[in-house]
Structures are given as C-alpha cells and as structure tokens.
Amino acid sequence: MPIQLCFCSELYLFSDAQSQNGWIVQYPLQSICIMTGNSVDIPCWYQNPSKQKVYRTFWYRYKDWMPGDKDPKDLAYDPEYRDRVEYLGDKNHSCAFRIKQLKREDSDEYRFRFITYWDERYTVAPGVTLSVTGKLQLEGNSVILICRSNATASENNYKWYKKNGIHAHETKSSKTLIIKDIKPEHSGHYFCGIWSITSTEVYINVQYAPKNISVIAFPSVNLKERDSVTLTCGAKANPEVERYTWFKKNGEKIIELGTGNNYTITNITSKDSGPYYCSGENRHGTINSTYLSVNVQYAPREFSVSVSPSGGIMMGDSVTLTCSGDANPPAKSYQWFKDEILISPGVSGQNYTINNIKFEHNGRYKCNATNDIGSHFSPAVFIFVESMFTSF
C-alpha cells in the first residue's frame, strides 16, 4: 500500500520573500518534509530598514504564541528545543537555524522574529512549515505527492517538476504524483505548478541498506614480511554506514578483527596471509563484501634434505635427495653442495639423483633454495655407502 509521506504546499501568488513594513525575510524552503531522528537545516535571509537596528532575532513555533504574550518562546530557551536547536545565522543577514533529533511533535510552522533597539517587534509571515513523519522513504516503497491549489484548473494544468542541481525538469502532468518502487535516484526536490505559479519544494530522501560494498588494499595485496597494509571498506548507503566490521577467514573459522572504515596491519607476517572481508551496517540492513586475499611473501625457510631410499645405501644403488621447505612464492631455483663444495652447475633442480652410487659419494649434502625474496640453506645430511661384500 503506498505511503503518503507529505504534501506539497498550496499554490499562492507570492514569492518566497515575505515582507512587513520594510522588513524582508526570505525562506528558500517554505515547506519541508523529513523523517524522525534526522537533523534539518532551515535556510533563511533577512533585510531590515537602514534606520532600524536589530537588537535581537530568534525563531519560535507559531502555535506556541499565545494571545496576550509580548513575545513567543524563543526556541533556544524552550526546554523542548534548547539542546536540539542551533542558530546558524550571522551578522550578514543570515537567519538559518538547525533542529536535531527531530520528533513528530516538531511538526509546525516556524517563524522568525526581530526586536529592535527601540523595542519594536516584527514577525514576517507565513514562515516555514516543517512536517516530521515517522514513515521511512525506503527503497522499494511508494510515495504520493499531492498538489493543492485554490485555483480552478483541470488535471492537465498541473505540472510536476524535479530539480537536478539548479535545473528542473517536468516529470508528469497531474494533480497527484505517484512514485512506485522508489529508488535512490528518485531522491531530490520536487515542486508543482499551475501556469506560471509554482509551489514550494518538498525534499524526498530515499533511504536504503548498504549496497555495492567493496574492499581495497593499499599499497597492495602482495606484500613482504614486515610491510604494512591498510584495508579500506566502502559502501553506498542512506543514511551512511554506521558501522564497518572486519573479518578474516582462518580455515573454517571466521575471526572478527575490529571495527572502522579502515583496518591496518603493521609489521605483517605470513600468519596475516589469507582472505579478509568487511560488513557495512546502517539502520536498514547489513551487507558483506566479497573476500580480498592478502598474500604475504617471504624467503625460503625451514628447508631440509630427505633421502630416498631411507634405509642403508649399498654401492651400486640409486639415491635421490629432495630439497623441500616453506617459501612464498615457491623456490624457483636450487643449488646442491657436497662437503661445502658446489656440485656441478648442471645440478639445479629440487631433486638430485645419484645413479650407481660409489664410495666416493660418501659425504655431507645440503641444498640452497632461492625465490624472489631471498635464499636459505638446509642443514646437511650424511650419505654413507656400504659395501656389497660381507665378511664371515
């Protein structure tokens, strides 16, 4: 069922600059529709006669001004508002103000008031009408905007416009504008018109859960030990993502690492290699990113030489020595040594095979493994060749 969030103002034949006895107040937005819990900035500019000096200015709620009161209650001193209202104006004729943590009860017409040094008082009406709704303009819902006027006009005389920056384009000719299945691109300022008369604007702010979430790494996902890396999580959301959480997958386990838009690892080690992901959350939902794998590279380490066959070695046997260990990227070249002397350059693979082994092959063998990061020597193993003859 469509959600009726707010209505455009009735159409009148006046501009947004109101005046009284030479006192001019300009309200760029005379009608604002916004959701509870948000903050709203209400823009305003004023001009006073040159011979009259302003002593004090303030905002008040129209319905709070009781007959017989000299002045209405200043919002800045109203217990219901004083912790939520901030006057943004300055001495250059700005009278803007902000209301935070909006509640439904804040819906009202707000007016700006002058007090001069001669104790004269002026209020320029009408003011700004604020409509605070508890209904969310959520992606996928529907919105109804109704254009009201005291003019006699046919349905086709009503025009709806949406502003893109300072430009406006016509969207529909009708008294009622229905937007079904609203999307983020429907956000914006809308107003209606009849002939040359236009209404004030209504802002539609389409909210949605985080989407298009991704993780990037700086400077790279390919790192060396003792480097540093920063992972950054980003997502589109309205309202903005309230909480980012970081996770790392270790085998079948998921480990929560922390919160924040960025996650930094300093003095990185091989244990930090693996897939990472983040989640983004706002009041409307949570989304997880895909995995980003961090690859920590390091020189060969913990290499050793294994001998096959592993039992006694008889003269004439074939023996294979294998150099193996841990390296990232894998070792791409090997050197073999016997009794600290490099075996002929042609022997460079991970395996070294000695066919028809003889006594002169007795000795201590070790390997040196190398990758793009560095190299590493294994401990030596001793090869002892036994005679085929046994004495009685």
UniProtKB/TrEMBL annotation:
Full protein name: B-cell receptor CD22
InterPro entries: Ig-like_dom, Ig-like_dom_sf, Ig-like_fold, Ig_CD22, Ig_sub, Ig_sub2
Organism classification: Eukaryota, Metazoa, Chordata, Craniata, Vertebrata
Oligomeric form and interacting partners: Predominantly monomer of isoform CD22-beta. Also found as heterodimer of isoform CD22-beta and a shorter isoform. Interacts with PTPN6/SHP-1, LYN, SYK, PIK3R1/PIK3R2 and PLCG1 upon phosphorylation. Interacts with GRB2, INPP5D and SHC1 upon phosphorylation. May form a complex with INPP5D/SHIP, GRB2 and SHC1.
Ranges of residues in domain Ig-like: 126-192, 210-293, 300-378
Pfam families referenced in this protein's UniProt entry, alphabetically: Ig_2, Ig_CD22
Its biological purpose: Most highly expressed siglec (sialic acid-binding immunoglobulin-like lectin) on B-cells that plays a role in various aspects of B-cell biology including differentiation, antigen presentation, and trafficking to bone marrow. Binds to alpha 2,6-linked sialic acid residues of surface molecules such as CD22 itself, CD45 and IgM in a cis configuration. Can also bind to ligands on other cells as an adhesion molecule in a trans configuration.
Superkingdom of origin: Eukaryota
